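Message: I would love a firmer grasp of how sequence relates to backbone shape in proteins. Thank you; the sequence and its tokens follow:
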Amino acid sequence: MDQIAVLNSDGKNELRNSAKKNVIAGTLLQYIVIKMGEEQYGIDIRYVDNIVRMQNITRVPKVQAYLKGVINLRGEVIPVVSLRLKMGLPADEYTKNTRIIILKTETAGNLGIIVDEVREVVTLGEDSIEKMTHEPKDSKTSFVNGIGKNGGELISLLDRNAITLETN
């Protein structure tokens, strides 16, 4: 069973099982549910490397406004992006619940994204996920590749590739 590092309430890292299910050909998928404003979004747990509390971000000059800077995480320099700004939402307001989720990318190493709150991990069956088609002019929907139904709640499932590409 895979493990991910999560910062506990005492500010210390602890390893938690990602609880990936051994099922046939992806009938169950797990998502970390995050909040941005009043909306809930899901990030596929397979792409999450770590979740850390908000920390000091070193600014980098002459970059896109959504690139907040870099952090040093155990000796690794990781770029940090404001997901709110990248999606065209109001600027981040940091609270005690604000977290940086470290995502594994295919080509550029790791990338941190700032989120308002990490809520929970949910397991969704393929039958409870509806794929979305994108309107090219609607930049917000281009970040979402599906909608998950978890009980009575809807979760917008984020497209990792759209989040990590610099062209958005």
User: Anything to note?
Assistant: Residues 160-164 form the longest helix (5 residues).
